[in-house]
Amino acid sequence: xxxxxxxxxxxxxxxxxxxxxxxxxxxxxxxxxxxxxxxxxxxxxxxxxxxxxxxxxxxxxxxxxxxxxxxxxxxxxxxxxxxxxxxxxxxxxxxxxxxxxxxxxxxxxxxxxxxxxxxxxxxxxxxxxxxxxxxxxxxxxxxxxxxxxxxxxxxxxx
Length: 158
Fold this sequence. Notes:
- It contains five helices and three strands.
- By secondary structure, it is of the alpha+beta class.
- Helix 1 packs antiparallel against helix 5 (126-157).
- The chain starts with a helix and ends with a helix.
């Protein structure tokens, strides 16, 4: 081997960082798509806002080995203040559940979200959860493909 071991180690370190960044970026994009699917629907398609808190409590976060890396904005709807605060709190509380993996977590943090979905038969998170589970593999494959291209460029520069 003519390449010094330090160069190989540095390339491996950079490759891991590139892959991690691409995974987080692509999961973040999927999170954004999921939040839009939930928040940007009419009352007929979802639920009619009374206070705006439920819609305001919807957001996502990307975790990597227990650390929150990316968090969406919890934009207020109808001037709601409880929804964004509860969304941010729930996102912060969930970090410990994802201590050894990457995770995309989409939340509707108001305590009555399940009741709206179950008792009022309104779609809060259910259809978007199905969508995310169907799409996550494609987003991760895209991340690997993009990272591979970047890593190949690094290798060519050696």
